[in-house]
Structures are given as structure tokens and as C-alpha cells.
From TrEMBL:
Record key words, sorted: Ribonucleoprotein, Ribosomal protein
Classification via Pfam families: Ribosomal_L33
Family statement drawn from the similarity comment of this UniProt entry: Belongs to the bacterial ribosomal protein bL33 family.
Lineage start: Bacteria, Pseudomonadati, Bacteroidota, Bacteroidia, Bacteroidales
InterPro entries: Ribosomal_bL33 (IPR001705), Ribosomal_bL33_sf (IPR038584), Ribosomal_zn-bd (IPR011332)
Molecular function as annotated in GO: structural constituent of ribosome
Gene of this entry: rpmG
An individual GO BP term: translation
Xref: PANTHER family: 50S RIBOSOMAL PROTEIN L33, CHLOROPLASTIC (PTHR43168), LARGE RIBOSOMAL SUBUNIT PROTEIN BL33C (PTHR43168:SF2)
SUPFAM superfamilies linked to this entry: Zn-binding ribosomal proteins (SSF57829)
Protein name: Large ribosomal subunit protein bL33
Entry GO CC: cytoplasm; ribonucleoprotein complex; ribosome
Keyword Ribosomal protein among UniProt keywords: yes
Length: 62
């Protein structure tokens, strides 16, 4: 029996890049999905950081 192929959609974690530099405790992370075939590079989105209380750049982490 053949194995089922993995789907093209995968879950990725986005982490705030500006939060590490601020020195404040905690971290801002979001979980989202991306299509492996259409988006081969790592995601970089502007999301709201509740700790810094503003929109910041969130990058995909491994």
C-alpha cells in the first residue's frame, strides 16, 4: 500500500525580531500556515506585538 503524500500546506511559527533587541521579558509568536510550493523562502510579516503595543516585523523561525 502506498504512503499518503505530505500536503503542500505546513504550519510555521513567526517570531518578533524587534522584541529581542528591546530587552523586555517574554516573546511574541504567531502560528500560521504557508504553501510550500508557492512560498519557498521564509515568511516575513508585520503583526501586532502585544508586549511592545505596536506593529512589528515577525519572521519565520525553524
Amino acid at each position: 500500500m502506498a504512503k499518503k503524500a505530505k500536503g503542500n500546506r505546513v504550519q510555521v511559527i513567526l517570531e518578533c525580531t524587534e522584541h529581542k533587541e528591546s530587552g523586555m521579558p517574554g516573546t511574541s509568536r504567531y502560528i500560521t500556515t504557508k504553501n510550500r510550493k508557492n512560498t519557498t523562502q521564509r515568511l516575513e510579516l508585520k503583526k501586532y506585538n502585544p508586549i511592545l503595543k505596536r506593529m512589528t516585523v515577525h519572521k519565520e523561525i525553524k
